[in-house]
Protein: Fanconi anemia group I protein
Organism: Cryptotermes secundus
Amino acid sequence: MSLKDIEVKLKTLGVKNDVASLEAFVSSLEDEKICSLVSCKICHSDAPQLLSYLYRGMPQNSATEVKRFKVTERVLRGLQSQELQNKQVNAIVSRLVLEVEKLTPAQLVQFCDYCIHCIQHEDGERTSWKDLLPKLLSVLVSNDSVNHAGIDMTGSEYKSEVIRTLLMVQWRPSIVTSLASMFIEVSLTSEQHLQVVNKLCSSFEQLAPPEIPPLVHQLLQLCKNKHGVALFLRLQAYFCTRLYNRLLSTASSSESTSLVANGDSIGLASETETQAAEATVLFHILQSARFGHASIRNFLKFMKNVANAPELVLDPFLLTVLLSVSNISIYQEQVFDVLKCTMQRAVQEEEKKVESAWLRDMMPSCCDVEFIFTKLMANSLRERSSVMEGLVNLAFILLGAKAAKGKESVAEKLRRFGMFVLVRLTRKHTETTGPVLQRLTDCIITGQDITQYTDCLHQMAMTIPLVFNEHRAIIIALLEMLTKLPGPVAENVVYAMLPIVRSFPSLRDVLIMVLRKALFARDVGLRKMAVSGFLQLLSNLDVKGMAVLSSSQSSQRSQGRPPAHSLLTQIDLEAGNSSTNNEAICLELLGVLRRCFMQQADVRLRLYEGLHSGVIRNPELRGFVQDMLINHFNQFYQSDPDTLPPLNLTKAVTLRDVSAELQEPLGHLIFSIQQVASTDSSDSSPTKLINILESLCSRMLKCSLENFGLNEATDLLDGLPESQQQQEIVRQILGVFEALMGYTISTWTKDTSAEKAKKLNSLFKGYSRVAEYAKSNHKTGKKTDGDTGGASRPKRKDDKRVAPTKGRTVTFRFPHTVLDYHVTHRMLCILHMNSVPWCTDEAANQIKGHRGFSIYVLEATLKLLKASLAENHTILKSTSRLNSYINIGSVVYSQCVTKLQEFVEFDAGTAALALDCFNGLFGLVCSHYKEKLGLFLGEVVGTVPASEGLTKQLFALVSKHKELLTGILSMEDEAADETAVKKIPLLLIQGITQFTLQIPCNDACRQVLKWVKLFVKDRVLSNVNLVKRMLSLLFTLELRSKGSSQLYEHIAMQLSDLMGTVNEDEEAEKHISYSAVRAGYENAVLFLLCDIVKQMLELIDWTLLRFRAEYTAMTHSVADRLQANRESLKRKECDVVHQISQCVQILNYVSNLALKPGPATDAVLKLLTHQYTSLTMLTKYFILRSTKTDPAFRAVRFEMVVKLTGKYLSPHVYNLISHIEASQKLENGTKKKKADPLAMKSKVLRETRFIPNLIYEIEQYEKFVIELSKKSKVNLMSYMKLSTYRDFRIYSKRLQAADDQDQSNAGNDTVVSGVEAQENGHSVSSVVKEPPKKKARKQ
């Protein structure tokens, strides 16, 4: 029978479903005939159907076993040898799978061997084995006995052998995707699964980018329940080497800990292909996350566990994955918590590295967060909408970071990261501008602390103004909401929108309309905002600038030039060609501002403070402003030259009901008038203003206290409305005198020097007379230091006046100065400069000899600096402000600080104020202009230019202050009674500290440390505050500059010499003595020592958290990187053990100090508690790391720490507790006077919290040491004694004494005098007897 006849007969019987005939026919056929038929028909489309008929004709019995095996074998060989369509192959294999269970174990083994052979030798185009092998293995597993290569084994053992064989063979790149698909269907143990995943992932390096996504898709299915972390880390290595490191060729200089090894060979695939591959991989990962696979949850859990090592999380690819997954609601909060905590940790770690040389040497340089974001955004995000959306969400979370107490700098840096991302993202991907702008608007409208949002809005407006204009609907909506926002918030919004508003007239018109409306709002804050908005518009508009721009562009168009597509073009299109457009707007703004004179005093005050800036930018407006001010000022000005005083003070301060109300801030009004009058302009002459100001000066000088309505009988501090009115009048008079002094200085020229000098002296005498009257009113007030020469000072705590009523304190508040930086700078110049271009030497000498005026000017300057430091707003950080700081700093430093000794001889109070001013100025520049600190020092100090580097500038500054400190201390010895002289060294040390902390930790910093150490060692200091400042600086620099130091141990030993020890039997060790540490200063030094040791322990705690993260990451590292990670971790563990040993040694001396109950004792107890907490953390970490075969703690000498604590520290601690209790009991027995409430509180806390907490931590430490001993089989308890502090303790010395007294009755005496009972933390002596024997219970 031919093959064709056999085929026809099989189909006929199969269609009829005649099973019996089919079985009879198949059994009658020869095996070779059937195999030949299969080989011929395998390529035909009806092959699956024909196979089905053949298998139906072979029932499951011994007669058909061989026939079925041969047919199946021939089918498999045909599949591997011939090219078939995937659909055909799948159909055939699916039919074969149904016959697998009918095969014998031996036949199954043969087919398994065949599949393994195909995997080893065949190419990737024919993969029929990937569906068959899982079924073969699943059937074999159920067999109890399988023979393979002459060896009998169970089916499970054979399956493990097959898996082991597959893992040993080399997998060609063409079949790894099929292998991954196959292993999805194979049941694997956890170890086998991890091995398979690692081997499949290792093939990434051999694949081209387009081949990665199919394999990842299969791997995500394979790892959907476990070991997904290994996949993500391999993908990280692949894409970082091929994509992100290429996007920015400038590699980060920081050494980061990598989880996986970088590939040695990088393919030549194009960047576009790699980006497309990554986008597809991200899609598969996102789909896996949407299906809720456990691999995503495990990955997020891993990220959370390694967040304490930021460089392990802040990788561009891992960030991309996390941001993509964050769009799924159930993962969003978790992802952003991980990222925010990681970035916060990165910022804090960088700060701690600056503070500690030990941490800096041990830890790698952390990643640059902005650099990572730049690499991420350098990749194309348009095809990754989920990543872009996640990035925007993350930026807003960072931008909204809350500032925890003491961590304001961390929150500020997180906000800066958020702002950086939003500005860069909107600039690179303009399609995100609309959503980002809308969210910023929502945050501003609904938020409370929104400064960071308005700052971000301002940065974006400066960067992409044209793109902003495309979303003007959002901007208009925000502007229209100004009247519903709090005043300060609305003011920030106006400033943020200025770059857009001043460029586009349509938006400017909207803002003007809103500000007009706000000017008459009920809320005074909104009115002040409206005034500020108008003033900012006025100071940002050029009357002639726009006209010139418009005419020039019109000329270009007339000459046939095509207009450029720029911001200026669009501005021109909106502005039109009117040359008077801006001038009309400015005049309109002035007309609106004229109405402010009908507003409250606070609103007008805002007008006076900002009006001058608009006149400076547009001098053409001075005439209008002059008329406006004169018309208003005439309401209070007495034009009659014979009228005294020249101002109607009772009209400026009126009585309303039971209180006085300020109607007009005359001082600020007159100062604003003099600013306008002294503005250089050729357009108009301020003759009217000058005449008024001159008349004011001459008539104010003629006024006596009686002219102002002030006399000795006036009680300013009374609560009556009239007295309140008099208080406010005095403040206004002082402000008027200040404004007139400002006018005199501002209009000072060389030709008028003699006249101006005489007038300035007279004005200051008038000011001093009124100020002295205010201070001397009610003699109960105390005169403060430096209140000499009648100069008024800023409000201080010691400016209080005590009223006759007992317990009631009334304060006369001096007004804030009306002067500005320009006037104070000119005052400082005339006081301290050798020669001034605008003043003659004779006139200057008349001013320089006035000590009171010098103090007044420095105090006014200091007051302005403190106000600027408190107002942290972007508008205050302008270049003009920096120039003012440079001008003032140059005069103060060159003429006051460098000549400090001369000033001390002239007046110590003036010298102290000059130093305080310079320190405040330096701190202000560091806070607001840190990036321009080199420019500031180059201009101010002058000895070292900015080009030579900031370090040299700061070191020169420190050197000068060291020289000054040495000289001043010698003068202090001669003038021991002058308080101001004693204050100067403190200010010098404060300056040295400020300068030194800005120096990077290099040779210059170590030179300063060397000098400070010698100073403390050799110099005897007579002021405890000076000792505290110097030692604080010494400890801080030692921590910053040296990884290991014995300084703290020597200080602790010196304290033992001064304070005595609890255990007097211990011999004192040799140590270096420091002259500054002497009797009387012990507690102050002890507090500083406790603080620095606390910092060291906090760094250890920080490091241990990082170790746990690195150990977690190490467990997922690949084999070729594992050993290097282990060695790195071991090295760092050695450093931590050494550092904590040093802390234990220091506290060993501190715990032996004979302390008296008090704050110092409480500080020591808390520090000891912290020490044992850190020891417990370290012990728990080694429990995690150590095993019976590998006790990791032994290699890093942790046993030495256990020995130090067990044999030395813990006994000292128990002795210290006993000493404290004995001292407390003795003190309670001798003290009969009424107890101090603070002392009682300290005693209660000590007994109920500090000591119990300490004992608990000791016991916890001992508990975990025992656990570590059990786990590692290393007897650590041989170094320790278990806790002896319980409710009952045996004092061996007392027991020995009792035995010596009564040896004869020792055996019979039941009284043991050496046992002392303790109840509720108190030591109470008691007699302990043997417990009575229990009576037998009657049955």
